[in-house]
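Hi W.,

Here's what went into the run:
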Amino acid sequence: MTGAGRGARIGAGREPATPAARLPNAPLVPTGWHTIGPFFPRTFFQVGDNDLARLSAEAAPTARGERIRLIGHVLEEGAQPCVNAVLEAWQADAAGRFRHPHDPEAHLADPDFLGWGRAWTDAEGRYEFRTVMPGGYRDRAGPRAPHVNIAVLASGIMRRLCTTVFFPDFAAANAADPVLCCLPEPLRPLLVARPEPDAEGERVFRFDLLLRGAPQEETPFFLD
Amino acid sequence: MTTDLPDLFHPIDEATQPQVPIEGYRNTVLRTPRRAPFRRPVTRSELTGPLDLSAKLRPGDDNLALAGPGRVAIGQLIHVSGRVLDEDGRPVTGAIVEIWQANAAGRYFNPIDTREAPLDPNFVGNGRCRTDADGRFGFFTIKPGAYPVPDSGRWWRPPHIHFSVLGPGSLARLVTQMYFPGEPLNALDRLILSIPDTAAQQQLVARQVPPTEVEGEWLGFVHDMVLRGRHATPPLP
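Here's what came out:
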């Protein structure tokens, strides 16, 4: 294969890298994960990246649902701040729908809501997301309470850490949530955000993540 | 209680993924939970994810070697291309591919990197593009230098490029590093060696395109990556 300038397809047609012993129709092996390391570029972050309710930096946040903020600290062993961690969040819209083929009501999902955002932690380990209060939904595994899925990336985290945040408004729904119920009962409150004083008329919830700590304090994570 | 849950995820082979802790890398201890992760049922929020992030994470920054008109970075000019595939070998179209790397002297343009290796005023070292219909991406850049990891007992990172790939859906996410073929430091690198399976280690090493096949004054490298695909996301009944 040859190329003739910028954007040329150099080396097109290479066979995928796979173990030599792979059977003809066996699935390819997913590429091994690595840490983001200490130097994930801050220049990757634009204003609004941490706002799940905006489709882009310029777009206005969706008008559907209650605007809320999700703030907290990411802490490592010894409750020291985890600096330059990257958090990625994903959630349903205010009515509990996803713009994705796996949602039978995807056509009804809020077209002005992205549901994804990315935030990084500052020198104190603080992060902030802006979003709307997610809706719950019925799933074959059971009724899901309103929640936000969060993945944590940082230097030394070789594979992302996945957890889920719930809200104190929905105690009954939380008690029935099939994912929260995977945890032993004493650990469940660790995944429920706590109310904080309002900011600029928006409700604020705090969710601190302790990546490594005492059993009764360490944030529960889920298999990815 | 967690053992009766349906195991909906196609189990990922642990031998093909890094194992921690890693000697001389203290953060792999400080940031690794003591408790094993809980298995959860896979519901809609775990199966779905953003289908297209190109409005949020803007692509179009695929030339790291040129900071502006006449501002060429110092180093060996290279082109790194490849395909993003799912586990069935199908191309992943519209994936966001982000890269970042050290300059030719092994220093990052990042305030946290305070080593004495020189900065290159014409090299920031990060880029972002979007895969085409064949799942293909490509970047012009310079070959990064090796660098010693502070306080690690003389562990040097081999030249490498960081990759962050965001495919359609939360499961189609990959953060990894690409290495260069024939680098003596590869065999000593503690991150590569943290993956037990040697074939999986080799999957992280790019292939050099024979120079006779490159029509331009750069060296070509090809690197494909495999995201979790259909096997991780069974259709809902």
